[in-house]
Write a structure and sequence with these properties.
Blueprint: E1 30-34, H1 60-68, E2 73-77, H2 87-104, E3 109-111, H3 115-124, E4 127-133, H4 137-140, H5 145-151, E5 154-158, H6 181-193, E6 196-198, H7 204-213, E7 219-223, H8 237-245, E8 249-252, H9 266-280, E9 285-287, H10 299-316, H11 339-349, H12 354-372
Parallel strand pairs: 1-2, 2-4, 3-4, 4-5, 5-6, 7-8, 8-9
Helix pairs in contact: 7-8, 11-12
Protein name: Membrane dipeptidase
Signal peptide: 1-22
Organism: Phenylobacterium koreense
Length: 374
Amino acid sequence: MINRRHALALGAAATLARPAFAADETPIVINALGGLANPNLQIGAKPGPAADTLKLDVDDRGVADARASGLTAVNITLGYVAGPQEPYAYTLASLDAWDRLLAAYPDDLTLVRQAADIRRAKQAGKVGVIYGFQNAEQIAGDVARVDEFAGRGVRIVQLTYNLPNSLGDGSMAPQNRGLTPVGRQVVERLNAARLMVDLSHSGEQTCLDAIAASKAPISINHTGCKAVTDLPRNKTDAELRGVAEKGGFVGVYFMPFLNLSGHASADDVVAHIEHALKVCGEDHVGIGTDGSVAAIDDMEAYKEALAAENAGRVAAGIAAKGERADTYPFVLDLRGPDQFRKLARLLAARGHKPRVIDKVLGLNFVAYAERIWA
């Protein structure tokens, strides 16, 4: 079954050809939530046993396309997100897998621990890899694990996925509880460890409570704007404004939730970015596509796999409103290695100044990272 958000994989060790452009020809581009997977490897693949869930789908194509896109750094998802795995043990195993992947591509990928590592990755022509979680349940049982994970290189911790957990409610939880006592302890420990607190996928009250509880700026690394498209995975103006007023960061995704039809276009991405700019200001908005760079080659074959994946997500109770068997987890006309350059062209055509476009593509995330990681 395709796991479109988390199917990231260990590929063969290889040094890839340098991208066709020079490092100084593109701005810093940060994907605040994405991946390096080659999704074509997932088409037709049969689901493996539970022990095989750490098999990743990163290969030479996935890494090469990421580099060719001009991507400077990407926040990848590792560790427990949802499912039957024991969260802590699974997360440790996932960290080991990603460490092996980076070791397999030393000339192409580099771990990001500090904001300065992003600029070093750009200078070296590599893609910086930021270790991030999309659930904090692996921490909830023992907040001291924050320090352990920080030592392993984790730099971003999302508090919840779509469902409730012991920290708070996800976006699909109808109760809309706020941040729990455990959640407040985790936020405090994340602040102390200088890790990013990410409120993507959270319920509105959990998000607002975390903004108030955090002593440091927080982020919503991949979302849309609810005022533009009223779906639970998108954020209200109050949430967006609260993040910005605290000096945080909001990343707009390339996902079906940007349009009520479920078939979002590049114009929808631009519309949500423009609304976020209006609410948050030009210093707090970026992109978190929620996808890899490599594009699907055979869309007809992919449709079958997508339908199977959607059925699995619905059965597991983790699907969000707006996900269907026919809704692609990407924007059809904004994918592949040219996606970031095309977005820049679309923003320029709308009259946005180069300064603002560069901020949206990556500089705002770098500035936020400098405020948190130093």
